[in-house]
Amino acid sequence: MQQDRREFLRRHLVDGVGLTASNAADLVDVLERDAARAVRPTPFSSPGLFPSYKNMAAIESESRTGELPYDRLLEHDDDVLAYAHQPDFPVKGRYLSATGRIVPVTATLDRLVIRQKRVVLVEVKTEEALAELANERPGFVVRDAGAGRWRNPSFEAYLAPFGIEFEYVTATSYSATRIRNIETLGAAFRAPLPAPLIVMAAREKVRGRPGLRLGELVSDSVSLGQVLVLVAAGIVYIDL
Q1: pLDDT of res. 232
Q2: Phi/psi at 119 (5° precision)
Q3: Residues of the chain scoring pLDDT < 50
């Protein structure tokens, strides 16, 4: 990590989030270190690398339906300043077994996310997996009906003194449509705008026919790539 970026994040964690100087320095160190573990492929997952411009590094994901969509959201979320995969920040908790024995748990979580006003350690799970855990370990994983989300009170209590929050993220935590739009637009978010004449012609066509579909705006003078850049820039709104 470049020294100026390191100092920016350290100061943000102290002044913007409210962490102690010591905890802020430790978190910046975590962002710089290698992942605590390598991703674990299974017969049901497709691990891979996600190129992150925000982090100036590749982010490893264990699943194309789990971590990868979440990484795409983080990459395009203005509230997120930086994030890391499998951060070297072990989280400790415990649960009560069926026999009444206290069982300690130490976990390496999926993502460390630095936001504008808070820091969050995130575990990406399916709703089914969390429901099973809640049944197997009552009180360890719980469903907060009022907030409409899953919680882990044990992890939350461990992280609170560090000024860090804990979250479970599932596919219900974000809009599938938004993910598809991000995937469709892809590099268009970072591409330069087309020539002014193309921008003006596209805007006039959309104004004349609100609700225009993507293919109807593509022509000999406006390519598909140029249309996607205009959509990503918020200059035109069409039906993808």
Answers
A1: 85
A2: -120, 135
A3: none
